[in-house]
C-alpha cells in the first residue's frame, strides 16, 4: 500500500501498546510518545522543568551514546512504515533517529528485551524540528516490539508504527472470538465514505469514548446508502453481531444490514448485489446511543471471510463485533501466516 499511514497504528496506546522502558525522561515522560491524539502545545507554559511539551524529551547528553525508548506493540504485525513526529520541538529535537524491531514471545521483562535479537528497520536518518517524518519499512517479518533511538538526545512528540496486524493463532483457535476485531487481524477493504472518521475505528479494541473514535460518514443528499466491507481475521462462522451506536445521539443510522461472503481473495470483491453475497442479518432498525446484539439464524451460520455492513442512509457506528469461531481452513490460514514470517 502506497500510503502506509492508512494502516492501523500498532503502537497506539488505545490499542494496548505501552512504552516499557527508556534511557531517560528527565523533561517529558516516555508515555507521551504513543498518545492517540495529535500533539498539543501551549506557549509559555512553564513547569519546574521548563516549557511543557506533549512528547518525550530527554536531558542534554554530556557523554557519549544516545537515548532510546522501547515500545511493546499493542498488536503484533508486519510493519509497513513509521512516523517520527517532532511537532513543537523546534530547538530541542534530535538531529538523527533510527528504529529497531524484535519479535519476542510471551511477556518479557525489560532485561529480557535488552538481550533480544533486535534488527534495524529504519537506519539512522536525519530529522528536522516540528515535522512529521514518514518513513516506509521494507521487512516482511512479524514484530512485537520496537526501539526508537534518538541521536544523541532531544524531544519527539509521537512515534507511529503502521502495519498489518498478524495475531498469534494459538490465542484464537478453538475459541469464540471477535472475527471483526482489528487486534485479531481484521480490517477494512473498502467503504463508501469516511468524511468524519475512519471505518477501521469501529473494529478497534475497547469502547469508543466519543464520536470520533468510531466510523462516521457525511450526510447523504441522494437516494443511496453508506457501507463498509470488513475482511475478517480469517474464514470463520459467525454466531452473533453487535452494532454499537454509543455516543452517536443525533447521527446514528436509522437501519443497517449485514451481508457475508466466502471469498478466496482479500480484496477485489464482487458487488454487493452479486449472487455470492448472502444475508447474515436483514435490514434492521437501530437506536441512537445504544449497543445492539443480534443472534444469527441457523442458516446464516456458515463460513465467511468478509462482511459488508450497510447503513441507511448514513451516520456512524461506534463499534462492530462479529462473534464466532474460526473454521478449520481459517485456523490453518492464520497458522501459515504466523509461521511464514
From TrEMBL:
<dbReference type="GO" id="GO:0004037">
    <property type="term" value="F:allantoicase activity"/>
</dbReference>
<feature type="domain" description="Allantoicase">
    <location>
        <begin position="185"/>
        <end position="325"/>
    </location>
</feature>
<keyword id="KW-0378">Hydrolase</keyword>
<dbReference type="InterPro" id="IPR005164">
    <property type="entry name" value="Allantoicase"/>
</dbReference>
<comment type="similarity">
    <text>Belongs to the allantoicase family.</text>
</comment>
<protein>
    <recommendedName>
        <fullName>Probable allantoicase</fullName>
        <ecNumber>3.5.3.4</ecNumber>
    </recommendedName>
</protein>
<dbReference type="InterPro" id="IPR015908">
    <property type="entry name" value="Allantoicase_dom"/>
</dbReference>
<dbReference type="InterPro" id="IPR008979">
    <property type="entry name" value="Galactose-bd-like_sf"/>
</dbReference>
<comment type="pathway">
    <text>Nitrogen metabolism; (S)-allantoin degradation; (S)-ureidoglycolate from allantoate (aminidohydrolase route): step 1/1.</text>
</comment>
<dbReference type="Pfam" id="PF03561">
    <property type="entry name" value="Allantoicase"/>
</dbReference>
<keyword id="KW-0659">Purine metabolism</keyword>
<feature type="domain" description="Allantoicase">
    <location>
        <begin position="17"/>
        <end position="165"/>
    </location>
</feature>
Amino acid at each position: 500500500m502506497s500510503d502506509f499511514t492508512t494502516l492501523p497504528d500498532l503502537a497506539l496506546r488505545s490499542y494496548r501498546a505501552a512504552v516499557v522502558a527508556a534511557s531517560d525522561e528527565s523533561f517529558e515522560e516516555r508515555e507521551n510518545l504513543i498518545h492517540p491524539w495529535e500533539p498539543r502545545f501551549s506557549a509559555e507554559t512553564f513547569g519546574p522543568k521548563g516549557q511543557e511539551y506533549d512528547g518525550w524529551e530527554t536531558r542534554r547528553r554530556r557523554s557519549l551514546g544516545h537515548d532510546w525508548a522501547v515500545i511493546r506493540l499493542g498488536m503484533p504485525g508486519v510493519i509497513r512504515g513509521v512516523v517520527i513526529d517532532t511537532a513543537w520541538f523546534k530547538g530541542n529535537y534530535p538531529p538523527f533517529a533510527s528504529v529497531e524491531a524484535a519479535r519476542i514471545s510471551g511477556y518479557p521483562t525489560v532485561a529480557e528485551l535488552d538481550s533480544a535479537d533486535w534488527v534495524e528497520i529504519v537506519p539512522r536518518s536525519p530529522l528536522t524540528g516540528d515535522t512529521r517524518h514518514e518513513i516506509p519499512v521494507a521487512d516482511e517479518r512479524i514484530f512485537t516490539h520496537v526501539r526508537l533511538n534518538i541521536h544523541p538526545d532531544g524531544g519527539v512528540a509521537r512515534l507511529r508504527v503502521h502495519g498489518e496486524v498478524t495475531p498469534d493463532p494459538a490465542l484464537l483457535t478453538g475459541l469464540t472470538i471477535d472475527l471483526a476485531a482489528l487486534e485479531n487481524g481484521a480490517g477494512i477493504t473498502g467503504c463508501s465514505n469516511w468524511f468524519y472518521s475512519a471505518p477501521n475505528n469501529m473494529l478497534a479494541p475497547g469502547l469508543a469514548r466519543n464520536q470520533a473514535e468510531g466510523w462516521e460518514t457525511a450526510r447523504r443528499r441522494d437516494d443511496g446508502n453508506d457501507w463498509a466491507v470488513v475482511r475478517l481475521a480469517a474464514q470463520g462462522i459467525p454466531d452473533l453481531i453487535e452494532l454499537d451506536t454509543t455516543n452517536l445521539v443525533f447521527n446514528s443510522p436509522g437501519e443497517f444490514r449485514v451481508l457475508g461472503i466466502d471469498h478466496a481473495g482479500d480484496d477485489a470483491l464482487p458487488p454487493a448485489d452479486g449472487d455470492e453475497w448472502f444475508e447474515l442479518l436483514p435490514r434492521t432498525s437501530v437506536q441512537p446511543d445504544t449497543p445492539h446484539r443480534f443472534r444469527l439464524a441457523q442458516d446464516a451460520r456458515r463460513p465467511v471471510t468478509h462482511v459488508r455492513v450497510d447503513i441507511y442512509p448514513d451516520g456512524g457506528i461506534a463499534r462492530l463485533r462479529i462473534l464466532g469461531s474460526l473454521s478449520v481452513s481459517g485456523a490453518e490460514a492464520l497458522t501459515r501466516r504466523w509461521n511464514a514470517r
